[in-house]
């Protein structure tokens, strides 16, 4: 038998991404299954276990091929026992994910938050390129984050470390966030928040903008905003400036406290690439301590949807390194 494999699992509200990954972090095979949220998500561990067995059969292999499983869950995770405190999308509350999945698979399991494993994935095989001090921010429907200091994920005292999306970015008259606060970074830098800012701009003036067409047809998206900005649309550029300002201010303050080597921008919004990155870097430099600004690189994530499974595999590997059976 050749080299053994790690299993990376990234649990989302609609699909579960899974992969067999080599010890050096290369994806051997990746696939997806639907997330079974019936009965408050209680069948999820069994469906993961079944899917792993089926995939092994396709390779004519047994579980001996696998070392351990690393899982990302969409909610805060208790480091002590690998339970998920709450995952609203799945119906989980104090869900004993690690214990149940270990029982279902007979393999060692390690669990962390999905944004954290995405950060680890980018650190290991993506845009982080091995940086041991890294901030990863995921700009999607919401804003997720992962902070890595000296190669370790920052979990904080009760698992809420790295919640970059809920830094207060608009201290006065901020929009409501789903966490219950007002003016969180998520309300101005997520895809949803960017659309909201664009709608506000469109309502507050009669200025011509190609975004009006999308607003009327109720199809306005963050991508439209960045595409229009790139084409020189003045109103769209004002929206992008606002996003860059809030994101640059929040990330610089975070960086001033952490002095990271790399800041990785991921998620759907990061596809805007330089249209976002160029103004973001300008704002960041304004607010960052000079020594912090000199030593950091702000880059776009490179692993896309695979960041989670690769980060999960890294955690699985780390867990097993601490055990004598693993070489
Ligand atoms: Zn919030």
How would you briefly describe this protein structure?
41% of the residues lie in helices and 22% in strands. With 327 residues, it is an alpha/beta fold. The strands form three sheets. A five-stranded mixed sheet has the order 3-2-1-4-8. It has a five-stranded mixed sheet with strand order 11-10-9-12-13, with helices on both faces.
Largest sheet: 5 strands, mixed
Q: Overall pLDDT, averaged?
A: 94
Radius of gyration using CA atoms only:
21 Å
Low-confidence runs: none
Strand order of the largest sheet: 3-2-1-4-8
* Structural category: alpha/beta
Gap between N and C termini: 15 Å
Helices and strands, in order, run as: EEEHHEEEEHEHEEEHHHHHEHHEH
**Beta strand count:** 13
- Count the DSSP helices: 12
Share in β-strands:
15-25%
Q: What compounds sit in this structure? A: zinc ion
Shape: globular
Helix proportion of residues, in percent? Answer: 40-55%
Please provide a written account of the structure.
This protein has helices spanning 38-41, 44-58, 97-105, 114-125, 186-189, 191-204, 211-216, 222-230, 234-258, 274-287, 290-295, 307-321; strands at 5-11, 15-22, 27-34, 66-73, 77-78, 83-87, 92-95, 109-113, 134-139, 143-149, 152-153, 262-266, 297-300. It is of the alpha/beta class. Strand 10 (143-149) and strand 11 form a beta hairpin. The protein has a five-stranded mixed β-sheet with strand order 3-2-1-4-8. Strands 11-10-9-12-13 form a five-stranded mixed β-sheet, sandwiched between helices.
Topology record:
Elements: E1 5-11, E2 15-22, E3 27-34, H1 38-41, H2 44-58, E4 66-73, E5 77-78, E6 83-87, E7 92-95, H3 97-105, E8 109-113, H4 114-125, E9 134-139, E10 143-149, E11 152-153, H5 186-189, H6 191-204, H7 211-216, H8 222-230, H9 234-258, E12 262-266, H10 274-287, H11 290-295, E13 297-300, H12 307-321
Parallel strand pairs: 1-4, 4-8, 9-12, 12-13
Antiparallel strand pairs: 1-2, 2-3, 5-6, 6-7, 9-10, 10-11
Helix pairs in contact: 2-3, 4-12, 6-9, 8-9, 9-10
The protein binds zinc ion.
The site of zinc ion has 6 residues, from loops.
């Amino acid at each position: 038998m050749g080299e053994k494999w790690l299993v990376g699992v990234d649990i989302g509200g609609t699909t579960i991404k899974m992969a067999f990954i080599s010890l050096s972090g290369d994806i051997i095979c990746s696939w997806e299954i639907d997330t079974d949220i019936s009965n408050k998500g209680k069948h999820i561990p069994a469906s993961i276990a079944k899917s792993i067995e089926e995939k092994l059969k396709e390779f004519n292999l047994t579980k001996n091929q696998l070392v351990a499983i690393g899982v990302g869950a969409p909610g805060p995770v208790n480091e002590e026992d690998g339970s998920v405190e709450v995952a609203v999308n799945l119906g989980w509350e104090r869900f004993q994910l690690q214990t149940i999945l270990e029982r279902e698979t007979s393999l060692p399991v390690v669990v962390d938050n999905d944004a954290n494993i995405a950060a680890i994935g980018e650190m290991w095989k993506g845009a982080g390129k091995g940086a041991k001090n890294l901030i990863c921010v995921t700009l999607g429907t919401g804003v997720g984050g992962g902070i890595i200091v000296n190669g370790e994920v920052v979990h904080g005292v009760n698992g809420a470390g790295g919640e970059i999306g809920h830094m207060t970015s608009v201290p006065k008259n901020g929009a409501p966030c789903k966490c219950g606060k007002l003016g969180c970074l998520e309300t101005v830098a997520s895809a949803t928040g960017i659309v909201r800012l664009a709608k506000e701009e469109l309502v507050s003036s009669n200025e011509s903008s190609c975004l009006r067409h999308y607003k009327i047809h109720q199809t306005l998206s963050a991508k439209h905003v960045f595409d229009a900005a790139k084409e020189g649309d003045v109103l769209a550029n004002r929206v992008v400036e606002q996003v860059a300002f809030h994101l640059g201010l929040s990330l610089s303050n975070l960086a001033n406290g952490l002095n990271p080597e790399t800041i990785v921008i991921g998620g759907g919004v990061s596809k805007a690439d330089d249209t976002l990155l160029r103004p973001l870097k300008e704002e960041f430099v304004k607010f960052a301590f000079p020594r912090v600004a000199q030593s950091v690189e702000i880059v776009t994530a490179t692993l896309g949807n695979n960041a989670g499974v690769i980060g999960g595999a890294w955690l699985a590997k780390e867990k097993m390194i601490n055990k004598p059976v693993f070489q």
